[in-house]
Please model this.
Amino acid sequence: MEPRRKFDERYLARQRWARAGWVYGTMLALGVFFIGPFYVAFLGSLKDNPLEWPFRATFAQVLPKNWAAAWKLGQQGAGNPLLGGFAPGAVIPFEVTYFVPAGTEPATPTVTVPERRAGAGLGAIFDEVQASQYAQVSPVEEVSRRPARVGEQDGQIVTYRFTISYPRGDPTASEELPTTPRLPLDVEAPRGQVFLTATLDPNRLERRGRVASWDSAAPGFLGYTFKNYVRVFREARDPNTGSSFFLRWTANSFFVSLMAVLVNLLFASLAGYALARMYLPGKGLLFALIILLMAVPQQAMFISNYLVLRDLSLLGSLWGMIVWIGIDMAKVFLMKQFFEAVPREIEEAALIDGANPITTFFRIILPMATPALGALTIMTFQGIWNEFFKAAVVLSGQQGSYTLPLGLSFFRSAYGVAGDWGMMLASAFLSMIPIIILFVVFQRYFVEGVSTSALKG
Amino acid sequence: MKKFWLAALAVAGLSTGLAQTVVKLQGFGGNDTAIISSLLKEVVNPAVEKDGIRAEYQGIEGDYKAALLNALAAGTAGDLFYVDIFWSEPVFASGKVEPLNAYFTQKELGVFVPSLLNAFSFKGKIYGLPKDFNTLAVQFNKDLFDEAGVKYPNQADTWDTFKAKLKEVQTKLKDVAGLCVVADFARFGAFAYATGWKPFNAQGKTVLDANFKRAFQWYTSLVKDGAGRYAQDLGAGWTGQCIGEEKAAVSIEGAWIGGFLKDKAPNMKFGTTYLPLDPVTKQRGNFVYTVSWSMNAASKNKQAAAKVLKALTSPEAQNWILTRGLALPSRGALASSPVFQRADKTGELNRVVFNGSTKQGGNVLPFKFGAYDGGDWMRPINEALQAVITGKKSVDQAIADAQAEINKLVK
Model:
C-alpha cells in the first residue's frame, strides 16, 4: 500500500494549495470589489465633472505638473500656496499655447477675468467678492511660434503670455482692498485654433473648444486638486451667521458619539454586571424582556420614542439623540455575557479584602473588562457616527444641530439637484476620516474582541 | 446625567417662556432651509413682528412627502407647510389642510397667476398659495446652431420645423445630438397637451387616444429620424446635462437649468424660446410645476399663520427671492419686474419660463394627476416611451400596453 499513501500525500498537498488559492482568490476579488467603487468615487471627488463618461483615471487634477503650477500660482496670487486667492500686490504671469492649423493666421486670444457667482447650492445665496473688480490684465503678447504636426494636421504651435495683476490701492485710503478667494479666468480664441496647454490646465473647455475656463487662475495646490473639499468648507456656511456648517456638523457628530459612547459604556456595563452577578428577584424575567426588546425593530418603537422626546422638549437638540441612543439592549447583553466569563474567585478575593460591590465593580471588574469595553466603544461609536434615521427624526430642520449623516443628506438635496456630485463625494469622504482613524487606533480591540479572558493575569 | 437634566430643563424653559406667537413652517430641506430662513429673517419676521408673531422654518431632509403625511397624522405638522402640486390632491382631499378662502379676499387671491392658483384649488376652494413655480421652455446652444448654419429655434416653430432644425444640426455636426430625448412624461406630456389631449377625460378616465398617439409618435420619432439621441446613450440623466456638456444642441427644461449652466458652462451662449407648436392645433402645451404654502387645519394659530402667509407671498418677499435668482414669483404683477426685462441669457430664460404659465404657454396643466400618485400614473407611459425609443416595441403596441396598465390603475 506504499504507493497509494504517497499519492494521498500529493493529493492532500494539492488540495491544500487549491484551498489556499480559493481563499486568497476570493479575498482578492472581494477586495477589488469593495475598493473599486471607493477608488472611482475618490477620483470623482477630485474631478471637475464627476459624472464624466467615459471614465478617465488620468485628468488635470492628478497630474503633478498641475500640482506644481497650482502651488506656484497660489503663491503668486496671495502668498498662499495651499489655498490660493487673489490679494493686492499680486502679479501672476500666465501662458497659453494653441495649435493653429496650416492656412489660418494665429489670432491673439482674448483674456478676461469674468464675474462668476455660484448658480446652485448654498453658494448662490452668498455674495462673493469678485476678483473682476480688481484684476488688471496686461496686453496679450505672442512669445513663440514653431511649426508642428498634431495628429494628421500640419500647422504651428503658438504660445501667448499675459500677466494678471492686482494693483495695491492708495496707502492713505481708509479701507484696505479685499483678498478675493478665487480668480476666475476665461481665455477665448477663434474656433479652429486648438487649445493645447497652459501654465495650469483649465477646469473646462467651453463653446466647442473656443473658451478655456478656469475657476481660479491662482488656486493653490489644495484649491486645485481638492477643489471640492475646499468648497465643502467655504460654501456650506450658515447664511445667518456665516460659520461653517461642515465644521459644526463634525463637532456635533463628535459630541453625540462621545457622549453616547460614555453613557452606553456606563449603563451597559452596570446593567450587564447586575444581570450576570447580582442577586435580583425576577432577573430571569428582566433578561428575557431585554432579549425581547432586541428583537423589536427600532422603526416600530420610534413613534413612542419621538413622542417622549417631544414631551421632554428634546426634539431638535443633540441631547435628544443622546438620550435615545444612550441605552442599547444589545450592548447590555454583550456585557452580561462578558461578565459571566469572569471567574467568581476574583470577586470573592475582593470581598475578602473588604471591597464593597461598587468598589469591586469599578476597581476590579471594569479594568478587567477593557477589551470588551474597547469593542463596545468602537461598535457604538461607529454606529452612532453613521446613524441617520434617529438623527433625521430628532434633529430635522435644525441645520445648526445636524450630525454628519444628516449633513450629507443636506448636501444631496442642496447640490444633487444641480448635478454637483463632486461636492457630495468630497463631503462623504471627509466624513469618513474620523471613523477610519478610530479603526486604526482601536484595531487591536477588534482582533481581541470579547474573546479575551480575564483569567490570563 | 445631571448635565442632561439641566439641559432638558433649559430647553423646556426656553420653549415655554416666550410670549410671542410662534408660527411653525415646514418645507423641503437643503437649500430651502437656508433660503427661507434668510427670507424670514430679512422680510417676513420684520413685517409680522408688530403683531407679536414670529415665524420659524423647519426644513425636512429626505422624503418630504412621507414626513409631512406622518406629521399630519401625528399632529406634529407645522402651521404652514409646502405642498407639492405633484401629490397635492390626495392631501387636500384628506381634510387636513385648511381652505384659505376665509382668510383672503378675492382681490388678495386675484394677484396670483390664475393657472397657478387654479392648480391649488380643489372642489372650488383654494388650499394653497403658490410659493413659486416653473414651466418648460426650449434652451438652445447658439454656437452649435451657428456652426451648423441652422436658424435658431423660435416661437413660430412647429413640431415639424423644430425637428427639421434639430436633424440638420445633428447631421452637420455629427458629434452633437439635436436633443437628448428622455423617456419621461414630465417632458413628453407638454407635447401631448399641445394636441388638446388631457390626462383625464370628462368621465375621469385616462384614454390614450389618437391625439396622444400623434404626440407620442412625433416625440419618439426624434431618435429614429436622427433629430436626437436617447439620453441614456449619451450617459445623461436629463436634457440639461446634455446641453451643459455640449452633447446636445437643445434642452427642454425650466428655469432651474439657469443655475446649473452657470456652474457647469458659465460661458455658454444659450437662448430660450417657447416649446414648439402642434402643427395641427397650432397650440403649445406646458406643465406648471409648483409648490404651495398651505395651512394646517389642526393649527392653533390660524390667524397668525394667515398673517405670516401674507408676508411670505407679499411682493417684497417674492422680489427678494426673484432678485437673487432663486425662483420665479407667483404674482402676475411681477412679470414686469426689471429682472425679467434684462437682455442677458438668464433674463430671457426667466421671462420665457414665466410666460409659459400664461396664455402664451398654450394648454397649460398643473403637474398633477388627480387623486392618483403621479409616479404610478406616469410609469406605464414612461415605459412605453422607453420601449419605443429603444426599438423594443412598435408605437401601437407600446400604447396598447400602456393603456392596459393604466386601466388597471384608473378605475
The mean pLDDT of chain B is 90.
